[in-house]
Specification:
Shape of chain B: globular
Strand content of chain A: 15-25%
Mean pLDDT of chain A: 89
Order of helices and strands of chain A: HEHEHEHEEHEHEHEHEHEHHHEEEEEH
Low-confidence stretches of chain A: 1-9, 21-37
Distance between the termini of chain A: 72 Å
Mean pLDDT of chain B: 87
Helix content of chain A: 40-55%
Number of helices of chain A: 13
Structural class of chain A: alpha/beta
Oligomer: heterodimer
Strand order of the largest sheet of chain A: 2-1-3-4-5
Low-confidence stretches of chain B: none
Shape of chain A: globular
Largest sheet of chain B: 2 strands, antiparallel
Strand content of chain B: under 5%
Radius of gyration of chain B: 19 Å
Number of helices of chain B: 10
Radius of gyration of chain A: 25 Å
Chain lengths: 422, 289
């Protein structure tokens, strides 16, 4: 009995082995051979939030990066296939720095991209600079990233808050009113937003009627809303992001605050508008990009997105997707222009470069002295549910400013970058 | 003045939610002598169930169904593991429930994902009430009314029913109660379920205020613990009063300096314990040997 059984098993094993070797000998051998001659992949480390306050923003930017990587799939970069190594920064500066260090030290990555939180970008940027790796900050808007904490090894794709408030501010003064109350997310990005808001008020003779510093991870805004309402502002100028903002929007609706003053998001992220829904979409806002910008490149990008991600949570690309896409695409193009994967050569290929196919109304100029991408900023109005043409049609475009007209000048932002690495 | 009144009302509402959470916590602690660290996560389950259910059955049904689910989870936990720690060193229960809470938080992450979600307040109470001398959200006023009703119901149950009397007797002398022929283990399971339901109810009504996220259980546990200690362990009205004090001081501190609102409860606890080591209304507690 035992003998019989063992015989049976061995025959079966033999058969399995035969099938496996046939598979290998057939199409398998050419596959292995091809792999052996193919070049070493070009690894790009992605440090992006998949948890924490900006998790959904991280998801949207990674989708954009994937779209850029897809474009290089056939030909590769310098004949090498592109591999993205994705790490979750958990919206935490310490975690972001640790993951970046691991990507550089263990995975030997020379190029990093990603991130939504400005605080994370600052810490990842410091790591990149120390190790001589190149970091593309794809979705952070605090001034410091291309200001006091600018580095030779860091480039920043989206506009800073100076560009945001200089486009948005004068419009609000003119159309909404001169009395502003500020909600400031109590970290790098929030401070930047309110700081430039106050400068706009000063320049145009407006008044600040109050400011509430909102700690990160605040979900109950009742006290802040009561305080803001008591100050009777024309505009409630909000630089609060992520899930905190979604909660704030719910509670502005709950308290009916939007009926008494105009909510102004200095930098409205589409993910948060989407989360709040049509009924809770009110006010006039600044935004770096949205899918309704009326130029052919954007229409094409939206179509591509829908084809690539038919089951996406948000049916249209957001500013994070566009920035993630542009960031990785320009990095890969720069590596091709440099002709080698050398960090200094790639930095030089990016500095002073102009990108004509930019997904905005103006081309991108990559400033050599502070590494800021200079391109347009937009002012939009929240549409009423009855005005929406489809379920993603949240914004009407009111105004846009070319990046070069609103960006900080060299005098306002006296940055001195370190020497080239290596 | 308008502003101050609105802040005070806001503090009252926060305090009432805190009080409901703390009541369940102190009930379990008083009767079973278990420092139940799963209480926070049961609160989170209440909120998450409500978040999911509201879309299908609306606010009122969610308010009823979600706490029942949470009560069932509590029941299962108690029957399976927690009852084994009764009568032992209170540290056993604490460690066990701490581990359970960590595991259950991961369960929330597995089911609902890592990111948080904001939760809409029910439509029929959208908007605010402006009385001239004060201004407040209608939803939160409704919520205040609900919590007051819940607190009164729990009080009536404990004070005015014979079952409540047995529960209280069981807390002070369990052997005597058993000797009188009462089924003490079943009563304890029942109390644990009630405590869980209170956590669940608080989760449902707090969801639109605090949004839902996996860590919300841990976040509420500390204030609840502080309130129970502040009010005096096992004291019903102590918990309610301490809840209101913590809510009020948190809310009003935002008026002056938002950043200190998080530490206020701890500072209060330190000061009160200096003068009243057993808390505001505490008597010799079960945790003292």
């Amino acid at each position: 009995m035992g003998k019989k059984l063992s015989k049976k098993i061995s025959r079966r094993t033999f058969l399995k082995g035969a099938v496996a070797s046939a598979a290998l000998l057939g199409p398998g051998i050419p596959y292995i051979a091809k792999k052996a001659v193919a070049a070493e992949p070009l690894y790009v480390g992605v440090v992006s939030p998949a948890s924490g306050n900006y998790a959904d923003h991280g998801m949207m930017e990674r989708m954009g990066m994937q779209m850029a990587a897809d474009e290089f799939k056939a030909k590769g970069v310098l004949g090498r296939p592109i591999k993205l190594l994705v790490e979750d920064d958990e919206t935490d500066p310490a975690v972001g720095a640790r993951k970046a260090r691991r990507l550089i030290e263990v995975d030997k990555v020379k190029f990093l991209i990603g991130g939504v939180s400005s605080s994370v970008a600052v810490s990842v940027g410091e790591v990149a600079q120390r190790y001589g790796a190149l970091f593309i900050a794809s979705n952070q808007n605090s001034d410091t990233i291309t200001g006091e904490k600018a580095h030779r090894c860091v480039f920043r794709v989206p506009p800073d808050m100076a560009m945001a408030l200089r486009t948005l501010g004068p419009y609000i003064i003119e159309k909404v009113g001169k009395k502003w109350y500020f909600f400031t997310h109590d970290y790098e990005w929030g401070w930047s937003g309110t700081r430039w808001g106050k400068k706009v008020l000063e320049k145009y003779g407006g008044t600040e009627v109050g400011e509430s510093k909102v700690p990160l991870n605040t979900r109950d805004f009742s006290s802040f809303l009561i305080k803001a309402r008591a100050a009777k502002p024309d505009a409630l100028v909000i630089t609060v992001g992520g899930i905190d903002r979604a909660a704030l929007i719910e509670q502005m609706f709950e308290f009916g605050i939007y009926k008494e003053m105009t909510p102004v998001e200095t930098l409205y992220d589409y993910e948060d508008v989407w989360a709040a829904g049509a009924e809770k979409n009110f006010g006039i806002h600044g935004t770096e990009w949205f899918h309704g910008i009326d130029i052919p490149a954007v229409k094409e990008f939206v179509t591509k997105y829908k084809k690539r991600w038919p089951a996406a949570l948000i049916p249209v690309p957001t500013q994070d997707t566009a920035n993630g896409y542009i960031g990785l695409r320009e990095l890969l193009r720069a590596i091709e222009r440099a002709g080698k994967d050398d960090v200094t050569a790639v930095i030089k290929a990016l500095e002073g470069h102009t990108v004509t196919d930019s997904l905005k109304n103006d081309p991108i100029y990559i400033r050599e002295w502070d590494h800021q991408f200079i391109w347009a900023f937009y002012v939009v109005r929240s549409k009423k549910p009855s005005e929406m043409k489809d379920r993603a049609d949240f914004f009407e475009l009111l105004k846009w400013s070319p990046g070069k007209e609103v960006a900080r000048t060299k005098e306002e932002n006296p940055v001195k970058l370190e020497p080239y690495p290596g | 003045m308008t502003e101050f009144l609105s802040f005070a009302v806001n503090g009252l509402v926060l305090g009432l939610i805190f009080a409901v959470v703390a009541l369940g916590f102190t009930l379990i602690l008083g009767v079973m002598q278990v420092i139940n660290f799963t209480h926070g996560i049961l609160f989170a389950f209440g909120a998450y169930f409500a978040f999911t259910l509201q879309r299908f059955v609306g606010f009122w049904w969610a308010l009823i169904i979600a706490p029942i689910f949470v009560g069932l989870i509590g029941l299962i936990l108690e029957r399976l593991v927690i009852h084994r720690t009764y009568g032992g060193n209170p540290l056993f229960g604490l460690l066990l429930t701490f581990g359970l809470a960590t595991a259950l938080e991961e369960v929330i992450r597995m089911i609902w994902g890592k990111p948080g979600y904001s939760v809409a307040a029910p439509r029929f109470v959208a908007g605010s009430l402006d009385l001239g001398f004060m201004f407040y959200s209608k939803y939160r006023l409704l919520l205040a009314a609900l919590t007051i009703i819940i607190i009164l119901l729990v009080w009536l149950f404990l004070e005015k029913t014979s079952y409540g009397a047995i529960i209280k007797a069981g807390a002070s002398d369990s052997e005597m109660v058993m000797a009188l022929g009462k089924n003490l283990p079943r009563m304890r399971t029942f109390v644990f379920a009630i405590g869980s339901i209170l956590a669940g109810v608080a989760g449902v009504i707090a969801a639109p205020i605090w949004s839902v996220r996996p860590t919300m259980g841990t976040a509420i546990l500390m204030p609840a613990f502080v309130i129970v200690v502040l009010g005096g362990i096992g004291s019903f009205w102590g918990s309610v009063i301490a809840g209101l004090i913590v809510g009020m001081s948190t809310s009003i501190s935002v008026m002056f300096w938002a950043r200190i609102s998080d530490i206020i409860p701890y500072v209060l606890m330190a000061i009160i314990l200096l003068f009243r080591p057993r808390g505001l209304m505490g008597e010799k507690s079960v945790l003292e040997v």
